[in-house]
């Protein structure tokens, strides 16, 4: 198998069917999605995550990525996350054109006080409404793990919150819920579509009283916490609203599933291993397959991290200007998304038969598209001015 770094290994990649390692298994979740970062830096755990990790991407690259997500990976839902408003809207427009069933816009800007956040998100909601008028697939998320992302929301640092006892931490949640209630009330005035929030698995959101349309929670289980995560899902389902796992996934090193969402922090001391991520994703899918959730969003499609051990992306970053390459995690998630019972609904044919149109072919799309039909002889055709790759079966 090639890691995608050497261009002369493309032929080897084409002849290896990685997805055959993971026989298709039905995923009993209607919405099968993935998270796509639209760009820019953000504040997390008392420090800035550099912008280069999640850079805004050009529209041509975004469209190539979304075609792979929709037509090859088979996802019918996608969540765009980040603080770059312009890039987020571009992503949403392209996704709407590709007819994703659900398009979640999750905008957060860390370097703002609470009042500024409300004003900023309300302004963004007006723009989201323009998209919603054209596509009712647009869903607005008014935040993501806000207790860890906003520096001034709870008047404590992340480290201070970690040191708190459970009873002490409970005193913080009324402030979080008050913030969410204020933002939701203002956003509802201008946005008429569905609204949700991506809660941290440690946050206590008052879902039963706040007027969200969808319950959203980021859940990163480990072998030790699987039981608690299932209990939380059962508790949230009792609210009677659609329940989405808005982020879940695994880093890329040996035994990464043991480290839930914090795997990226310990990755530098671990051994790189794509099987570690693949096994983690497989364990997560098996776990949530038993819960009756309504949607799941894998984190993430790709991250521009030089150390892939710390990456939750299912594509590997091979350096600026080089094509990303699929990881084993890509194929294991695909095997669930395209499970036998879901295959027809999730894998809509792309325009013109089952081939993939790759007009204005770039190095990125060549690397990705070349793996669409492994174990097949690929041939390039000219159809209607587009370059196509199709199976020779």
Question: Can you give me a brief rundown of this structure?
Answer:
This protein has helices spanning 10-14, 59-72, 85-97, 114-132, 146-149, 158-163, 166-170, 173-190, 226-237, 263-266, 274-288, 328-337, 343-346, 363-369, and strands at 31-39, 42-44, 47-49, 77-82, 102-107, 138-144, 194-198, 215-218, 243-249, 295-299, 315-316, 325-326, 356-357, 378-383, 386-391. With 393 residues, the chain is α/β, with parallel strands linked by helices. The radius of gyration is 20 Å and the shape is globular.
Please render the helix and strand layout as text.
Elements: H1 10-14, E1 31-39, E2 42-44, E3 47-49, H2 59-72, E4 77-82, H3 85-97, E5 102-107, H4 114-132, E6 138-144, H5 146-149, H6 158-163, H7 166-170, H8 173-190, E7 194-198, E8 215-218, H9 226-237, E9 243-249, H10 263-266, H11 274-288, E10 295-299, E11 315-316, E12 325-326, H12 328-337, H13 343-346, E13 356-357, H14 363-369, E14 378-383, E15 386-391
Parallel strand pairs: 1-4, 1-10, 4-5, 5-6, 6-7, 8-9, 9-10
Antiparallel strand pairs: 2-3, 11-12, 13-15, 14-15
Helix pairs in contact: 2-3, 2-14, 3-4, 4-8, 11-12
Q: State Rg.
A: 20 Å
Q: Termini distance?
A: 22 Å
| Spatial order of the strands forming the largest sheet | 7-6-5-4-1-10-9-8
The CATH class is: Alpha Beta
Order of helices and strands: HEEEHEHEHEHHHHEEHEHHEEEHHEHEE
Helical content (DSSP H or I, runs of 4+): 25-40%
**Which secondary-structure class do the elements indicate?**
alpha/beta
SS summary, helix count: 14
Quickly count the domains.
1
CATH homologous group name: Glycosidases
Average of the residue pLDDT scores: 80
For the record, the CATH architecture stands as Alpha-Beta Barrel
Largest sheet: 8 strands, parallel
């Amino acid at each position: 198998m090639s890691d995608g770094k050497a261009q002369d290994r493309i032929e080897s990649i084409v002849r290896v069917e990685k997805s055959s390692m993971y026989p298709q298994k039905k995923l009993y979740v209607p919405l099968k999605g993935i998270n796509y970062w639209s760009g820019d830096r953000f504040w997390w755990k008392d420090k800035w995550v550099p912008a280069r990790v999640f850079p805004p991407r050009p529209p041509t690259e975004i469209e190539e990525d979304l075609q792979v997500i929709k037509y090859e990976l088979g996802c019918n839902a996608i969540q765009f996350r980040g603080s770059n408003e312009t890039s987020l809207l571009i992503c949403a427009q392209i996704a709407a054109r590709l007819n994703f069933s659900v398009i979640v816009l999750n905008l957060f800007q860390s370097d703002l006080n609470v009042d500024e956040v409300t004003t900023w998100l309300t302004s963004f909601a007006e723009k989201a409404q323009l998209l919603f008028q054209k596509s009712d697939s647009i869903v607005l998320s008014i935040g993501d793990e806000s207790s860890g992302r906003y520096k001034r929301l709870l008047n404590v640092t992340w480290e201070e919150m970690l040191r708190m006892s459970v009873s002490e931490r409970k005193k913080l949640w009324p402030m979080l819920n008050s913030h969410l209630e204020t933002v939701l009330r203002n956003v509802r005035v201008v946005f008429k579509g569905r609204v949700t929030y991506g809660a941290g698995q440690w946050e206590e959101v008052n879902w039963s009283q706040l007027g969200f349309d969808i319950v959203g929670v980021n859940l990163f289980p480990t072998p030790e916490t699987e039981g608690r995560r299932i209990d939380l899902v059962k508790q949230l389902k009792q609210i009677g609203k659609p329940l989405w796992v808005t982020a879940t996934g695994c880093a890329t090193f040996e035994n990464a599933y043991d480290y839930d969402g914090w795997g990226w922090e310990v990755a530098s001391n671990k051994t790189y291993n794509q099987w570690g991520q693949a096994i983690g994703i497989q364990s997560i899918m098996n776990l949530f397959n038993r819960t009756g959730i309504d949607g799941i969003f894998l984190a993430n499609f790709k991250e521009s991290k030089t150390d892939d051990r710390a990456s939750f992306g299912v594509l590997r970053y091979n350096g600026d200007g080089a094509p990303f390459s699929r990881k084993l995690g890509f194929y294991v998630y695909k095997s669930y998304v395209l499970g036998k019972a879901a295959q027809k609904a999730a894998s809509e044919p792309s325009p013109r038969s089952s081939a993939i149109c790759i007009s204005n072919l770039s190095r990125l799309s060549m690397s990705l598209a070349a793996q669409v039909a492994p174990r097949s002889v690929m041939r390039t055709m000219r159809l209607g001015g587009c370059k196509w790759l199709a199976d020779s079966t």
